[in-house]
Write a structure and sequence with these properties.
Blueprint lengths: L2 E6 L12 E6 L9 E9 L28 E8 L9 E4 L6 E4 L5 E3 L16 H13 L7 E4 L5 H12 L4 E6 L2 H9 L5 E4 L6 H8 L4 E6 L3 H7 L3 E9 L21 H4 L3 E4 L9 H13 L7 E5 L4 H7 L8 E5 L5
The chain binds NADP nicotinamide-adenine-dinucleotide phosphate (NAP).
NADP nicotinamide-adenine-dinucleotide phosphate binds next to helix 1 and helix 2.
């Protein structure tokens, strides 16, 4: 048995590339008192990670060169010196791009409870993407029944879940923006969106948004960044809300070179509210949200596409592809046996 992990080999400049990462090996770590070792089964790759790869801190500290990349994982406890976390327990946790983790039960961690769902669901709809969608829509977006909801990067795990939650909670219109015809077809045919705009295929995205949101936007759930927010601001309705969930178009751009937000007048004229989301601030509500979303999955109200990769070595390319629009749904990487 060998411990393997992916580390950042150098700080990223622009879009991340596979050579920014390196694979390392070492002895399998041994838990001390009050600790346990998890064997990872599934790891995720998350676009927000990019914000920590340029060497500067965000709300989370910059990724350290040579150390295992942070991320989310599902695994099983294989050695424990902690009474509450016995061997054999399946868990989801802030694990990372590695094959084993030493944990103490604190931070983002939970026991897999819902039977009958693939284990990888716990880093998908029932993981950080689903929680981001839930709290971004409900708490930051202050969702109200009848809302007209617009979502960017709508075919990604966060966007697709946010749209389906808004649909289930009584939105009057849900429109997604995504980068391929296939993604747009899935949004309308499978995920229950009213319409989807392929932003790479339309000549005039502003006009396409106006056409598809004829009565304006009550809630913009933005995963993309400043330029998207700026173009949607003039379409915001009175007391509209913008949830700043992510900035996937901006993470790889130096702050001084990012687009600005100029259409600020609706903040006054329409009393629009824009607020950023840090999903972990809602940790107290995670259990309730997970129970709610598990029920919706079983009821067929919540669907998520998943792309599966094999082996730890696949993690850098799975991650870099997120910024080329290659992923269609949640990217998960199998790094260990499920049995
Ligand atoms: N605030 C929080 O607490 C929190 C927590 C977790 C995640 N997030 C954020 O939620 C957002 C969505 O995450 P996710 O996991 O669901 O990933 P995701 O939306 O699947 O992100 C990858 C997708 O982003 C789109 N994209 C990539 N580069 C782009 C560009 N330059 N312009 C426009 N779109 C681009 C591509 O889709 P297209 O083909 O459609 O272009 C790509 O497939 C991310 O920004 C993430 O950081 C926030």
């Amino acid at each position: 048995m060998t411990y393997r992990y992916v580390a950042l080999a150098r700080y990223c400049d622009g879009l991340p590339v596979e050579d920014d990462f390196a694979i390392h090996e070492g002895p399998v770590p041994v838990p001390g008192d009050g600790q346990f070792r998890a064997r990872h089964i599934w790891n995720s790759v998350d676009p927000g990670t990019r914000s920590r790869l340029s060497g500067s801190d965000t709300y989370a500290a910059a990724q350290t060169l040579g150390k295992p990349m942070d991320g989310f994982s599902v695994g099983v406890i294989e050695e424990s010196k902690h009474p509450d976390w016995p061997e054999g327990t399946q868990i989801f946790f802030a694990g990372g791009w590695r094959t084993h983790s030493i944990l103490n039960g604190k931070g983002f961690i939970g026991k897999v409870q819902e039977a009958g769902l693939p284990l990888s669901t716990w880093i998908g709809v029932l993981g950080v993407p689903g929680l981001t969608a839930w709290f971004g829509t409900r708490e930051i977006g202050r969702f109200r029944e009848g809302d007209r909801v617009l979502i960017s990067s709508a075919a990604g795990p966060v966007g697709a879940t946010a749209g389906q939650l808004a649909r289930a909670w009584g939105a009057s219109r849900v429109v997604g923006i995504a980068g391929t015809a296939e993604k747009c077809a899935w949004l309308t045919e499978e995920a229950g969106f009213d319409a989807a705009i392929n932003y790479k295929a339309v000549d005039d995205l502003d006009a396409a948004i106006a056409e598809n949101m004829p009565e304006g936007v009550d809630l913009l759930f933005d995963n993309v960044g400043n330029r998207m927010i700026d173009r949607v601001l003039p379409r915001m309705r009175y007391k509209g809300r913008i949830c700043v969930s992510g900035q996937v178009a901006d993470y790889s751009v130096a702050p001084a070179e990012r687009d600005g937000i100029r259409n600020t007048m609706p903040f006054i004229t329409h009393q629009v509210n824009m607020q950023g989301l840090v999903v972990f601030t809602f940790a107290k509500g995670f259990a309730e949200a997970l129970t709610g979303m598990a029920k919706m999955i079983h009821a067929g109200q919540l669907k998520l596409k998943e792309e599966r990769f094999e082996g730890l070595d696949a993690m850098p390319s799975a991650f870099c592809g997120l910024f080329r629009g290659e992923n269609f749904g949640r990217r998960v990487v199998r790094v260990g046996d499920e049995t």
